[in-house]
Predict the structure.
Amino acid sequence: MKLISLFENADVGLFVIALKGHKFINANFSFARILGYKSMESFFSDFTWEKHFSIAGQSDPFDLSCGNVTTGYREMRICRVDGTMGWVNFSFGIYIKTGYIDGIVVDISDLKSLEQEIVRISDLEREKFGRDLHDTLGQTLTGTAFLCRALIHRLPKKPAMIEERVGQIENLVNQALDQARHLAHGLAYIEVKPSGILSHLKKLAAQANAVFGGDCKVKAVSKVVLRDAESATHLYRIAQEAVHNAIKHSGSPKVEIRLEINAETGRMTVKDFGKGLPSRSSRPRGIGLQLMRLRARLIGGSIRFVNRRERGFQVVCTFPLAKENAK
Ligand SMILES: Nc1ncnc2c1ncn2[C@@H]1O[C@H](COP(=O)(O)OP(=O)(O)OP(=O)(O)O)[C@@H](O)[C@H]1O
Ligand SMILES: [Mg+2]
C-alpha cells in the first residue's frame, strides 16, 4: 500500500511497461507531467513512444544494440505535448523472465538550459575578448610599426646600425601584430558546417603551429559528418581547447588530432606527448576542462580525459553522427 502511494506521489517520473510492444502497465503522474500531459486520462489515451522520444539523431529509448545489457541510463531529448523540446535523464531495467521494463525519468531541461547558457556566455566573452584584442593591442601595434617606418625615413644621416636596429624593432612589432591577429581570429565567432569539421581542424593545427610553435598534425581516418552546425562548432571548440592546453601545459609541442568513426558514433582524440596532467591538488583551476565536458554533453556525446602521466594527456570525445555517415 505504502509503495503504491510512493509510486504515485514521487516527484520523478516512474513507469512499468510490457517488454513486448512497450505497452503501459503503470505510470505515475510525474511521468505524464514531464511530457506535458494535464491528466492521466489524456496520457493513457494519447501517449506513444514515437511521439515523445523519436527525435532526429536519437535512437530508440530501449536501444539494446550494445549487446546483452539489462539496464540502461542515458540523457534523452523529448518532445512535449505542446511541441516544445526538453531533456530527461532516462534510466531503466529490463526483466526478461517476467517480461517487463521499469524505469525512472527525471526532467533535466532546466539544468540543460543552464549548461547551454554557461557555454553561450563563455563564447560571448571569448568573442568580446577577441574583438578587444583586435581593436586595442592590434591598433597600438599597427601604430608602433608605422612609427618605426617613419623613423627610418626621417633619420637624417641613417647610421647603418640604428637603421638596422629600428628595422628589427619594426619586424618584431609586425610579428606581434600577426600573432595578435591570429589570436583574435581564434577567439572570433565561428560556425562550423556539419561536414566542415575536418577542414577546420586542419586550420586549427596550422594556426597552432604558426602562432604557438606547435607540432600539431591531424589524422582523419574516416569522413565525419556531424548532426548539425551547432554540434560541429562545439566539437571544434573542444579540439581548440585541448590543443591549446597541450601546447600551453604539456611541455611538448607534439600534438595529434585524430578523427574517426567507431561503430555508430564519431570519435575525436587529441593526444599530446608531454608530462601529463598534474595531480588535482597542484593543478590550477581553469575552466577549459569543464567547458569541454559541458560541450560534449550539449552535443549528446561524452568525454574522457586519459592521463598517461609521463607519456602525455589525451582528450577523447565521442559524439553522435548525422545519418549520412552510414552511407
Ligand atoms: N595537455 C595537458 N598537459 C598537462 N597539463 C594539462 C594539460 N591540459 C590541462 N592541464 C592542466 O590542467 C589545468 C586545468 O586545465 P584547464 O584547461 O581547465 O585550465 P587552464 O588551461 O589552466 O585555463 P583556461 O581556463 O584558460 O583553460 C591546467 O592549468 C594544467 O595544469
Ligand atoms: Mg585551458
User: Anything to note?
Assistant: The first strand starts at residue 13 and ends at 18. The chain has three domains: 2-107, 109-189, 192-327. Residues 245-246, 249-250, 272, 274-278, 283-284, 286-289, 313 surround adenosine-5'-triphosphate (ligand 1) (CB under 6 Å). The radius of gyration is 27 Å.
